[in-house]
Amino acid sequence: MASATNGGESYNFKVVLLGEGCVGKTSLVLRYVEDKFNSKHISTIQASFLNKKINLDGNRVNLAIWDTAGQEKFHALGPIYYRSSNGAVLVYDITDEDSFQKVKSWVKELRKMLGVDISLVIVGNKSDLEKDRHVTLEEAKEYAEKVKALHFQTSAKLNEGVEDMFLALTQKMLDDAKKKKAQENLLIGQNSQRTVTVVDDEAETTKRGCCGSN
Amino acid sequence: MYATKQPSLRIKQADLKCKNGCGYFGNADWEGYCSKCYRNHMDKERQRKSNQSQHGDHSKATSFSKFEEKKRQQSDKKTKYFLPVFRKPSSLKETGRPEKYIDIRQMNPDADKLLAEFISAYGEWGEAVRKDFLKCVHSFTSKIIHELDFKSADELADIAQNYYNSYNNRLNNNTVYQNVTPDVRDKLLDFFERYSMVGLYTFLFCPPSTNDEDKDLSIQDRIRKLSWVNAHHLDCCISETSIEVRDLVYTAINDLLGMDSMKAPQEKLACVVRCCRSVVEVLQHCQGGPVSADEFLPALIFIVLKANPARLKSNMLYVTRFCYGARLMQGEAGYYFTNLCCAVSFIENLTAESLNMAQQEFEAYMSGEVTCVSAWESALVACEGMHQLCEHLSLLKGLSERMSAVKDDTQKLKDDMRKLKEEINDEVTSVLERTPLVIKPRKTIFPLTMEFLKSLPPLPEKPPIPDKGKEVEINQDVDTAPKFYQQNITLTQMGLSDNKPKLQLDITPCVNLPSASVVKPSLSTDFLSVPSPAADKSIESITPDDNSYLGLSKINYDIDFSDISAENSIIEDLGESRRSPTMSFTPDPFSPMGTGCPIMQSPLVPSAAEMPRVEVPPVRKNDFVLPFLEEIEKEDTKKETLLDKVEETPTICLPPPIKPTEYTGFSKQGSRIPSIPCNTGDVSSLNLQQSAGSSKDTN
User: Which residues on chain A are in Cβ contact (under 8 Å) with B325?
Assistant: First the structure.
């Protein structure tokens, strides 16, 4: 009923957060969803699964952000997490070379398992610790371009680039989804991304941005 | 009626036996065969059918049927339960819907409940929605049951997912649902899944065609082997020393265990979600702040290891196969379920490396060579022990509280009883004090005496004393009356104000005063002398009474007293005796009343008080009578007091004797006693009155 009033459509995207432990995956998502950094002020008791509703080009998008355990011993569980996800945020710590290597292995795995169905964004977090940087921006950008992934530098602590990063990812997923839909025409995708859900009809913001903050 | 019913109820023993005659009992569900014969029968039947129907496509059919057979052989135990179901849809293929409809209803005992739920939740959307919903559910379930025999579990899952999708499309596109809000559409889709799956649960959960059961057993075994793994091994910060945390851990475990009892995939998912929320809470308690996946997953693994849920794999596969895919892949439930899958996967592939321990140590643990000896583990055990200790202590505390309460109450009851005893004793003594001993005969005699006194004015108040003093050999018959009179007088002289003279005081005065006035000694000696010396005839006539023990005379009292109706006659007798003194024997019945009193009083004197009495010793020799006497004397005292009281008035103004004013305790009795004789006189009139009253009442 309320799904197609302005020509836009509702999308549900599943985004997984991948990355080594302690690179700031949780901080990143909490900054994005709650706009808070210090864990003391955060009301959510669990940061492993969060929903974010945004409005993009008149399309209502519901982002389901899945946090994953970053410990090396859980690496093997990755496929279970990223199965049928639309996007992946690969986070590394700019002060930690190893975490970047980990991102590389993730990218390899994802491309191997899901091909180009998944939109990737490589995120260098902790940009506020510029002085301790071990992963150069150029290197990271170069790599990202090579694997057809977006690249962002963020600081969850200072709230730099977090929202831009998520918006860019959402845009990419949206484009992919629309492309895919156009290709498949009316055929329903295997993961039925077309499931129509209701999004609270808040005032539609014409500009590109987030309006559905909780 | 009974006769017609009975035969139908009776089943012959032979009817219960297997149709094959193998001696075992058959079953209606097995077409009258026993389990073994039925299986053979069905196997033959199936063979025959597959040969017949698949004739054209022979090679494929046989191979397929062989495949089926093999499967059945593998899971023989399970097949038994599924056979009737397998049979019906396949054999009744042509008959179509109605039969299947019944099937679905039969196999889904919750259908009615679900339907009621559906109506209450979605009834507002109209009959059409309900009809369409049920139509879809039935077509879905029929389809599944049709395919059950020929498709693998994964193929069935595909069918189910297609049905979900098509129903979802139907919800969004069909005109039937055009008025339904999108929210409700989602719920309808969920309900569609639930409704169908609750019915199909028996067939789709851990189907015999899969090796789900083996997986269950292997994971269970694996978890059992890993029971030594603790939170520390998993780098998980669950602090089991806190009671709150432990309770939450138990809650989480319970939720996870509850998954197996649910039927619909959604309900199972809900259990997982509840469990995971508890885990999140546990972590909140342990570390504070938002819980990230880095902490959540190890905790969940820990919970799964500790819970070791039954049929874990079957449940998970069932959910994965038959939960609407779109639901499973998104939302909180999807996330938590994914985490559970991860946890189980981790447990299955757990190595020494993943626990950060040496391979050797890991193997030692796994083989059971080494048991948990870590400080942490022993602390855990100790903690659990402490927990139990606390529980037991609190239990004991409660018990001891209850015990002391019981003790207190017992003590209180004891005190109460003692108090009651004391009170009763006090009351009795006070009553005894208040109501001095009265000699019973006096009462019966009293009216007579009064009448007599009235009728015999010559008898002065004092004269009797001198009379007695003068005469020892005074006529006993005549003596009685004056003596009573005298006693009364002495009592009144003793002081009417003295309302509570003691038992002996009451009596002693009677005897004492006369003795003091020289009259009594003679009298008493007179009585005492009765047994030994032979007195005049009149005395002799009494002696038998006395010799036959005072007790006897006492008994006479009782009879006299209780037999109040005889009072009149006694009075008459007395009167007669008065008139005819010669009849010395006639007074006998009341001689105890009259003469008995001094005699009986005599034992009282020593027993109750230290009143030095001369007559005491001789009377005392009748030791065995004493109890009797004392008992009866008490009664006597009571009666005496009553009479005394009654007597008081006569001395002053001589009102009708029977008007006790003060002694409420005996006033009733006292007033009743004399009144009864009056009534007995005209019982008929009384009866008449009563009958008249009753008749009035009835009228």
Answer: 191-192
